[in-house]
Design a protein that fits this description.
Elements lengths: L10 E4 L4 H13 L3 E4 L9 H11 L3 E4 L13 H22 L3 E6 L22 H16 L3 E6 L2 E2 L6 H11 L2 E5 L3 E2 L2 E2 H20 L9 E4 L6 E2 H14 L8 E5 L19 H7 L6 H7 L4
Parallel strand pairs: 1-2, 1-3, 3-4, 4-5, 5-10, 6-9, 7-12
Antiparallel strand pairs: 8-11
Length: 304
């Protein structure tokens, strides 16, 4: 890919206080790309009057929507709130992007699938969410596709980072409090470092900008893409890898005994996909984006 003129870019990031939003902020600052960060405290993504003014006044060239309601179990009892953030918000953003003729990069989830498949899910595989969270995220995807032709929907899964609340941080906290832990071993997926998701989104945004504005002959490939870690693993396997790395780096004095348990042993209000490995070939072919190396990310993170 030829060099992209990032000087003429201005990215608006919603959900700026989430773990992906904070990783996006880090990457945008590091790459010197002009951006505006919008948290829930700054503005509601459904507030089109405020958003329209921001887009117009700042000359926003694309929106990355990292805002989401992600409390999978609470969504079962907070369906209206989940709908407002995961469906209505993306719909409002898509309409604005269409009005201003700019791309919308929207982040979605493996929960749009039921998890009954035995081979990695492709972007074209049948969606069938089993809970409120997955259904609202799927409805958000449909709204983005309906209202904005210039869209990238990036499905990801098992997100972890140095920010926010996530499985890695929970495991490290529990490892310091308990000698023995039970971790689910019959759910399989691909851990994905939020910093790598941020890099992928920004890389795509840059390539879209190049195709749209610099007349380089590059083609803007819009649509649905999958982006996850490079190696499938169970939650049990992920926990073991986290503990081993933390112990090796000295941030965990001793590794707790980790017992493999089944999903049935740990009932939750929302059903989890048993298998949510996503195929990442398409994003590699269209945008030269490689899967997240989640073990390398574990090694790089400051595990404290």
């Amino acid at each position: 890919m030829s060099a992209v003129d990032t000087q003429s870019m201005h990215l608006l990031v919603t959900g700026a206080n989430g773990q992906l939003g904070q990783c996006l902020a880090d990457q945008l600052r590091a790459q010197g790309i002009t951006h505006t960060l919008l948290s829930r405290q700054d503005a509601d993504i459904n507030d089109t009057v405020v958003l329209e003014k921001i887009i117009g006044d700042k000359g926003v060239t694309a929106i990355i929507n990292a805002a989401a309601y992600t409390a999978v179990d609470k969504a079962e009892s907070e369906a209206e709130l989940a709908k407002r953030i995961n469906e209505d918000g993306p719909a409002a953003l898509a309409k604005l992007c269409s009005r201003f003729d700019i791309p919308l990069l929207h982040v979605s989830t493996d929960y749009v699938f039921d998890g009954n498949q035995q081979t990695p899910y492709a972007e074209t595989d049948q969606t069938a969410p089993t809970g409120v969270y997955g259904q609202t995220k799927l409805n958000g995807e449909i709204a983005v596709q309906r209202h904005c032709s210039k869209h990238i929907i990036l499905r990801t899964a098992w997100v972890f980072s140095e920010y926010g609340n996530n499985f890695m941080k929970t495991m490290l906290r529990l490892a310091k409090e308990r000698d023995t832990l039970g971790v689910v071993a019959d759910q399989i997926g691909c851990p994905t470092y939020a910093g790598d998701i941020a890099k992928a989104l920004i890389s795509i945004a840059k390539q879209l900008h190049d195709a749209e504005h610099n007349k380089s002959g590059a083609q803007a490939d819009y649509g649905v893409y999958h982006y996850v870690g490079d190696e499938p693993v169970s939650w049990y396997g992920f926990a073991v890898a986290i503990f081993e790395e933390a112990h090796k780096r000295g941030s965990l004095k001793s590794i707790p005994i980790v017992n493999a348990i089944s999903t049935a042993d740990y009932p939750t209000p929302a059903k989890r996909p048993a298998y949510s490995v996503l195929r990442t070939a398409k994003i590699g072919q269209d945008y030269d984006v490689l899967p997240s190396e989640w073990r390398a990310a574990c090694e790089r993170l400051s595990l404290t």
